[in-house]
Amino acid sequence: MATETETLPPTQLITDHTLTFPDLPPFPTNIPTAPLHRLSLSALRTSPVESTRLFSASKDLGFFYLDLRDDVLGERLLREGDALFAIGEKLYELGREELQQYDYKHLGSYMGYKGYGSAVVDEKGNLDRNEFYNMPKDDFLGLSQTPLAHPPLLYEHGDSIRAYMHDAHKLVLLILTHLNTHLGLPPDTLASLHRQTAKSGDQVRIVKSPPQPASDMRTALGKHTDYGSITILFNRLGGLQILPPPSLVPAGQEPQWTYVKPLRGHCIVNLGDAMVKFTNGLLKSNIHRVISPPGEQARETRYSLVYFARPEDEVVLKRLEGSEVIPPLEEGVAEEQISSKKWIEWKALRLRKVEQLSEVERKKLWDESGLGI
């Protein structure tokens, strides 16, 4: 049963200028938007009701808005996010040829640079229309024994990157603490699987999606679920879409891709595959994609800032013990014993083996990924 969701009425969204980005074209008012819960970080500090709403959102859709205003940590994240957006613009001014030397997929790593048009995004074999840079937590916090090389620009802004990593992870741990309580797990169970001082696939990603030709707009980032535990997303232009699960769609209707409207002062939080595995499907990791922004926003270059929190490398992704809330495994079901590190590596790189592939071969690669289902 779907629980009640909270979205702002369209008229309120139009008149509340604190939720819009004044330097960018407005999000169209005539486009349906996803019914995400809108939660408050400051309220989560003290309100059991807000905590229950977080748990409901995590069970229904696995996506929610989080208002960061009027909270010390939240306000700091907003400032640090602004700084990272500025760093991201400078990063891409280096040019694709310069950044290409930091693509490490030949080493079996998804960290570093992913170039424009280097991954399959749909069943037609089309390639993506964005580029992004993954900044590994282990490198920037000094945990890697053999750190990768990164552009000098990122080292010059290392303090800003590390500050954002630390604060984003504090937010992740707060969310995990609430989920831990509602799941009835022993204290600190989830937090103990996500120590920032342990090696993991945690990363900061800065994404650039340039405007697409009006006559040939395609998916910029193909449909997927996130690989890890908690994702913290900042964006200012539309483009992110979710496909609601059948449980949230009126009877007799098919799920439709729906835009998630960016709200100023908020981040978008979503759960990843690890939380599904830990809770045997109780919590949700919802399918989403990125397409061209709607309306006048389509003429703008779209940047996104993402913090991916993943379980520690050696954590096995399976149902957690010690909870009477998490559903038991069905009789005879044996869980796959795969570590967080192996799972993320496979998921992150499976659609990037596109060099010299024909369109037919790219279609086959997509079909083999299981995303065509």
Automatic annotation (TrEMBL):
- Family named by the database record: Belongs to the iron/ascorbate-dependent oxidoreductase family.
**Residue ranges of the Fe2OG dioxygenase domain?**
200-311
Keywords per UniProt: Iron, Metal-binding, Oxidoreductase
Q: Which Pfam families match?
A: 2OG-FeII_Oxy (PF03171)
Any single GO molecular-function term of the entry would be: metal ion binding
Identify this protein by name: Clavaminate synthase-like protein
Say which domain of life the source belongs to: Eukaryota
Ranges where the record places region Disordered? 201-220
Q: Does the keyword Cell cycle apply?
A: no
